[in-house]
Amino acid sequence: MKLPTLILCALVAVSAAASSRRPVTVTEATPFAAGYEYTFRYATQIGSGIRSQPNAETFESQQATYQIAADAVIHFQTERIATLRLKDVIVTSQNGAVIDPRRVASVNIGEEQTLETQILEQLEYVVKFDYVNGLIEKVYFNGKDATWSKNVKRAILNMVQLNLARQNMPSEGTNYVETASKNMFNLPEVSLEGDCQTMYVISSPVSQFFNVTKSIDFKQCRRIAKIQYGPRATKQCAECQKQADQQLDRASVLQFELIGTPEKYAIRRVQLLSQYVYKTLATESAHPMQTIVASELFLTAVEKKTVKALPTVRRQRIHR
């Protein structure tokens, strides 16, 4: 089974088990608006190891897994300027097999890590960003924030990015299909993963709900980002990066549960599943090394808030 198909099928396994909290009701969910604060529960699980069987759809031999759970609080100061801050951060890790690494398990499956003060401070640095018609246009990080901490926050922002307004759609060469039951279109999009062709499939509304599936085509990218998920030392190496890209198969799919219409909607729940399979010089029958990232973001509260002045932070575009 090809990676994108596997990822799409596995999305149904992503669960909110990492928290006892539940998403807000239909009446409580509101579109992003100035003067409001939106609290999401975020949970992500990153597992790396050796796949037990070639081309297997289950991965019992996952070797190492760690999880991050936090409240992600997004406050809109204006219609397009917002901030993101993390609170109540929990990090757990474990070694050994995971029954289903595509499912976000309860955070108590592993040993909770006591975060060093410096690491916790980095995670708690506020991020300011421009949000225009569903797209993250610019991100303003604290100058002291580390690369891995920025990527945790980028990952969350990536899960609230939706180009339903079809911005940046080229006039030529765009694959666009529309039927009575669904919309489907491809367009280039800059995200955490890079600058890649992205497919959107919009389902027909049921009551006040509708779903959007967003998949990234890594075969059609102008740039692919190098993602660092933990507080590790890094070395710059252009040739190393080129070689790593050639040795890596990747796939990412996001599924959004929205309330409203494609023109005006509230984000109630987002699920993400990414798979990275590392090629080796061994034969195709060799057991490949892989990383699976399963994440979930769901809205737990909406409150009206007054605007508070924030310290100046360094501006940085989303793709850097």
From TrEMBL:
Disulfide bonds: 237-240
Domain Vitellogenin: 32-320
SUPFAM superfamilies, A to Z: Lipovitellin-phosvitin complex, beta-sheet shell regions
Molecular-function annotations in GO: lipid transporter activity
Keywords: Disulfide bond, Signal, Storage protein
Pfam families xref list: Vitellogenin_N
Name of the protein in its database record: Vitellogenin domain-containing protein
Origin species: Panagrellus redivivus (Microworm)
Lineage: Eukaryota, Metazoa, Ecdysozoa, Nematoda, Chromadorea
